[in-house]
Amino acid sequence: GKDYVGFATLLCQVRRKAVKKGFEFTLMVVGESGLGKSTLINSLFLTDLYKDRTLYDAQERINKTVAITKKSVEVVEKGVKLRLNIVDTPGFGDALDNTNSWKPVVDYIDQQFEQYRQAEICLNRKNVQDNRVHCCLYFISPSGHGLRLIDVEFMKALHKKVNIVPVLAKADCLTRSETHYMKTRILDEIDRHEIKIYDFPECDSDDDELLRKHNSVLKKSIPFAVIGSNTTVESNGRKVRARIYPWGVVEVENPAHCDFVHLRSMLVRTHMQDLKDMTEDTLYENYRTQILCQNQE
Ligand code: GDP
Ligand code: MG
Fold first, then answer.
1. Which has more confidence, 12 or 120?
2. Which ligand 1 atom sits closest to the C-alpha of 252?
3. Fewer CB within 10 Å, N or C, the chain?
4. Which ligand is nearest to the CA of 142?
5. Cα–Cα dist 297/294, whole Å
6. ipTM value of the model?
């Protein structure tokens, strides 16, 4: 079995300097409870397979209904150290009245920007702690007819502050044609509401054919239809993550069954550095400029 996360290819993505220091990445998950956020994170980063990995609460903050929690895990693969922070938002969308339920999430992201900005201003810039959120997986329910009001409101409130990657949750609940319908519908609505989701960088003319193909497959998969599971089964002598139903087995890592591998590939193998660069160069810069303008008024 290929039971490693696979971020060692970061070596190709990052500067030497960064590799020596280790690599840090912060991923946020948002969506109503029960959509499989925790299960997907476990499936993506094998957190339950690595018993020796230390998982601890770095921060907890209660804010009315939406609690924001942060967990960190340190993984070393092939000499590359990755410190992964997972920001979870249990309770999002669970209230009877979800008006402004995106507010605590916006506040959290702004606070991380502000902390970084303050640290940057200080004289000792060597050990600036960077808790900025690099990517937000937004979970869309498979049981609706596309986006709901709360989905639109959330994405509109957040799209200038964080790289949003929409995922169609629990895709095993949908037939192939339903998945296709939902994906088309979601993309249409994202477009109609002028929501800006994370956009893959254009390929350079000197990128090789393989990378171009990879990028185009990823792009076509959005919103990624995902399935998570904490159960493994034997298939062809290999242990694979799967969901077992009376009528059959759904394999999480089988691209014929869902887009899980595409999502993981994007997050850890090919686009982690770009997500960080976008955060630093565009989203954080927006924030900084906005604060500067405010201060001048
Ligand atoms: P969270 O509240 O969003 O963190 O959701 P959980 O990960 O705790 O999952 C809620 C329930 O949904 C659990 O019973 C999971 O076993 C189940 N679940 C998780 N992922 C999937 C999936 O991809 N498909 C299906 N059908 N069920 C799932
Ligand atoms: Mg959860």
1. 120
2. 23
3. C
4. 1
5. 5
6. 0.99
